[in-house]
Amino acid sequence: MIVQVQAMRDFARTLLVRAAMPVDKADAVADILVEGELLGRSTHGLALLAPYLKEIESGGMRLEGEPEILADFAACLAWNGRKLPGPWLILQAMDAAMARAERFGMAAVTIQRSHHTASLGAYLSRATARGYLMLLTLTDPGFSSVAPYGGTAPVLTSNPIAFGAPTGGDPILVDVSTSLLTNAMVAKRKREGRDFDQPWLLDAAGAPSTDPNVIFADPPGTVLPLGGLDAGHKGYGIGMMIELLTGCLSGHGRAEPKEGWSASVFILMIDPAAFGSNDAYLRQVEALAAACHASPPRPGFDRVRLPGEASARRREAQLRHGMALGPDILSAIAPWAEKLGVPLPR
């Protein structure tokens, strides 16, 4: 089904408001879910709308109030998100970080106990459009699906990391998990009854597997860290770095009891002007981008692209021609639309 983008954004917002989410928070959540979908993050876009509505109904997501300030050291800020909507919390934290980076050159914010945050890549362009470099990463300390390299019991999770940098044209946007698969992708393959093409999982005994069901077995299997069987120590190391910046630095990590969907978040905002000048920064970025584009493509590639270029073209196409929604998203949303009295978009 092809839906006009603004119609889908209005539909998502209306559903959330009918579910009692305040308008400002509903605007933030709808914007980020649609932006994730536009960028091609199908498991972290509108597929999350129905689960979010379920979390509201069950009380797992808090709707009213503000984050609690745990610490404020000028360029450093720490919040307890109190299980408020993740997209709203991150956008609020980004505004605070940019205001402080304008004064101090860089600023960092940690958020403990945020609700689910959707696609990290969906936030980056809001910072790069204002000239900032942004690092955004998180862990869910209540969930484990990735074993430490050489182990078989899950400890970490997919621990995504996103980074955005302004250029003279399209920004450079990086959005990756530090495991070979996200938990959402594993769950999607399980629902579809489809194995993976490569052995990106381990069963509980440590044997490589393509079967997503091993993650849901008792005892559970694990997702391999980025780098897989041969170089997974690299993904494990980056995953540990993220745990330290998020769960450990925020004060809410794996020492805490599990409490449902939750996230510990780290945001770093950098003003390049504080390290010289914007002109000097942009000169270097343009040279770097040109060198990457000039690299002769290997067989199977038409040209070399910068991180984020393919997503930007996908976004532009959907803004022009409409957003394609799969039957799984529609079937999950339809009961909520009926329950809340909101017509499905045409």
Question: How would you summarize the topology of this molecule?
Answer:
Elements: E1 2-3, H1 5-18, H2 23-38, H3 49-58, E2 68-73, E3 76-80, H4 86-104, E4 106-114, H5 121-128, E5 133-139, E6 161-165, E7 172-176, H6 183-192, E8 201-202, E9 208-209, E10 222-223, H7 228-250, E11 263-270, H8 278-294, H9 309-321, E12 323-324, H10 327-340
Parallel strand pairs: 3-4
Antiparallel strand pairs: 1-12, 2-3, 4-11, 5-6, 5-11, 6-7, 8-9, 8-10
Helix pairs in contact: 1-2, 2-4
Descriptive overview:
This protein is α+β, with helices and mostly antiparallel strands and 346 residues long. It has a 7-stranded mixed β-sheet, with helices on both faces. The protein has 10 helices and 12 strands. The model has no long low-confidence stretch (mean pLDDT 96). It has 2 domains: 2-180 and 224-277 and 310-340, 2-Layer Sandwich (Ribosomal Protein S8, Chain: A, domain 1), CATH 3.30.1370.60; 182-223, 2-Layer Sandwich (Wheat Germ Agglutinin (Isolectin 2), domain 1), CATH 3.30.60. α1 (5-18) runs antiparallel to α2 and α2 (23-38) packs across α4 (86-104).
Shape: globular
Number of strands: 12
CATH homologous superfamily assignment of the largest domain: Malate/L-lactate/L-sulpholactate dehydrogenase, NADPH binding domain
Q: Tell me, what is the CATH class of the largest domain?
A: Alpha Beta
CATH architecture of the largest domain: 2-Layer Sandwich
CATH topology assignment of the largest domain: Ribosomal Protein S8, Chain: A, domain 1
Head-to-tail CA distance between termini: 9 Å
Cα-based radius of gyration, to the nearest Å: 20 Å
Question: Which structural class should the secondary elements be placed in?
Answer: alpha+beta
> How many alpha or pi helices?
10
Mean pLDDT: 96
**Number of separate structural domains:** 2
Order of helices and strands: EHHHEEHEHEEEHEEEHEHHEH
User: Could you name the ranges where pLDDT drops below 50 across 5 or more consecutive residues?
Assistant: none
Strand content: 15-25%
Helix content: 40-55%
Spatially, the strands of the biggest sheet line up as: 2-3-4-11-5-6-7
Major sheet size, sense and barrel closure: 7 strands, mixed
